[in-house]
UniProtKB/TrEMBL annotation, chain B:
Keywords: Cell membrane, Membrane, Transmembrane, Transmembrane helix, Transport. It comes from freshwater metagenome. It is a multi-pass membrane protein. Its main location: membrane. The keyword Lyase does not apply. This is Unannotated protein. InterPro entries: ABC_transporter_permease (IPR051393), MetI-like (IPR000515), MetI-like_sf (IPR035906). It holds the Pfam family BPD_transp_1. Coiled coil: none annotated. The chain crosses the membrane at residues 28-52, 89-110, 122-143, 163-182, 223-242, 275-299.
Amino acid sequence: MKKSSKGTVLATLVALTMIGSTVVAPASYSAKAPAWPSQTAKLTGVTLTMWCAAASLAIPKSVISSFERATGAKIKVVTIPDPYESPVLAKIATGDKPDVAFWAPTVSGLTSINAKANLLSLNDAPWISSVDPALRDVFGLLGKTRYAALIGTPNLVGMFYNKEAFAKAGITTLPKNFTEMTAAGVKLKAAGITPFYDAAKDAWPTQFMVQSLLGDAAKSGWYQKLNSREAKFTDPTFINAVTTYKSLIDQGLYNSDIKSGTFAAQTTALLKGDVAMVNQGSFLGPALLAEAGNDAAILDAKIGYFGISPTSNLTLSLPGQTDAIVAFKTGNAKREAATKQFLAYWMGKGYAAFLDDRSYISLQPKVASPSTVPKLFIQVASGLKNSVGAIQSQALATPDIHVYLSNMINGTMTVQEVAQAMQTQFEQLAKAQGAKGF
Amino acid sequence: MNAGAKVKLLLKRPRINAATKAHSTHPIWFIVPAFFFLIIFFIVPTVLNFVYSFTDWSSFKTEVNFSGFSNFTQLFSSGNLVADLRITILYAVLVAVFQNLFGFALALLLERDTLLNRIARAAFFIPVIMSALAVGYVFQAVLEPKGPVNSLFSFILGRPVEIPWLYDTSWTIVVVSVIHAWKWMGLAMLIFLAGLKTIDGEVLEAARIDGASWFQTLRTIRFPLLAPAITFNVATSLLGSMNSFDIVQATTQGGPGGTTELLNIYIVRAFGQGLFAQATAMSLVLLIMVMVLAFPLIWSLRKREQIL
């Protein structure tokens, strides 16, 4: 009797351990993808879950309520804590999935979320044909499959400048390349204006100047060489870019509080004219507009934009998690169909109202951009025509470049160490992806 | 029983007496419900942590394959892990020192049972029950270069003061560990107080009659009698802060220049990159590290108590 009870306990332990491991193992579904339903078909009783970051929470509000009114469906919005991407990946790893979520429509973004296993294909989506052909296939594709829908102009990176500061320093023509920009910086400094601002406390803004310095290399396919192991971060291409960035800091052309600088302080300083130039993503536009009391006229009078690379006015395109939405394979055919319907509505019947609500620039030639959009935003968006993908949109994986650069600014890493750390982490990530040759 | 003995009892592992009589009155299957929870919430995760450390589990693909020691060789060869381990240990030691110093000083200060002292004890205990993230964010705001603390110094000194409390590559780790110690000092205070309260009054009276000063009594009688409380406080503060994350995340996020990057911050970063197996391997290293430190530490502290 005693023996058998011991045996039972042991057997239970083994069984429980096995149950435990199956629960944790990631589940994959292979349900057949449902076709695209009519945009306003009735969906009473269907509830969809959408994941947003704190930064993207307000974006879908209006389109969700009009979709709910039109179809009777309910969309529950869940805020995922910052830094959005990692909590999302962690949740998916434990088997928790939404129906729709914001996600970066880049190759590395779609690879990291394992799009093939987790996301619905949007290949035959009804809105694709109405998107501007020049922008249609730039983002959202992984291989030949489309997994993400771009909701507005993707994030673009370049120089935002204060017009009054430029005038004060006697700069009348905009810099056409990096050398001219540095010369303008020296002139500004002589006039008592801080030429550039960076934010090593927030860290992430530090990547942009180096990325702009890599613009020409990016255009000539350097990231592809990186992906195929023909190039390395430890090559002169990358080292020179970081060295140039560091020399600008060492020359005193940056804000003296660069170590404790933040994105918020950057925005205020640029609008006030304490700082002349800020290399940032297009999301700086809305932040500046808010800072200007939502007065587009004030913003346009004060702030301008130009793209920059070593030799030209090149803009970087860097779609982020607020620029696109993805639909998940949940294994529930009814919800998957409803999700597709929601996306089709957003990019279809609901698109014009959505753009108006958000003051976004249209991606569809037949839908006009709202008239309230500041000229600055249109100027930035036009940079897309002369743009090249940033590291996030071209490399297999993006190492923590911002962490290493802010370490360099704080003096705990040299340029060489930054390059080495980039290469080591890049190889590690590429290997984890099972990329060829790593 | 004095508090020292109580703490001792808490630390002592209960001896399992496998008397045959007990078997008939307490059949073994009685522990099944307890074991169920122990297995689901403790054993399975620990075993999986161990297993996944030797795989290539990542967010990039669905299948998980064994990859031997490659996670560990990669981690140790890059040097980041060793650097972060060093920071973690330094942080833990600093926290242990400050937390116990503050706690002990408070216990001595608030030893007498006056109304004011009771209120003060409650006040100093409040940070313990506060959210660590909230504490971190408050300090982060207060210690900004143009924040209230520097403004206060500027006012007192009559000249602008801009001390980079959280942006100094050599001193910020001390500042952050003081914040950590500040949050937890109430707990150390409480345990020291319990220890002080249970010292036999007759011993202290005898000392007083013999002409011992306050400081002599403290040094030669009260402090040695506090040994069990010290064991508990040092062990919990040192080992507990090895697993710290929240306060550092809220104040410096591992910066400036990675000088406060605790292992847990690095683990979250690796997890965020989708490198789940590497992150798991790192947490295994941390677990081993804590164990390697815990056994000799607790053993030597307990050895100290035996002189009593």
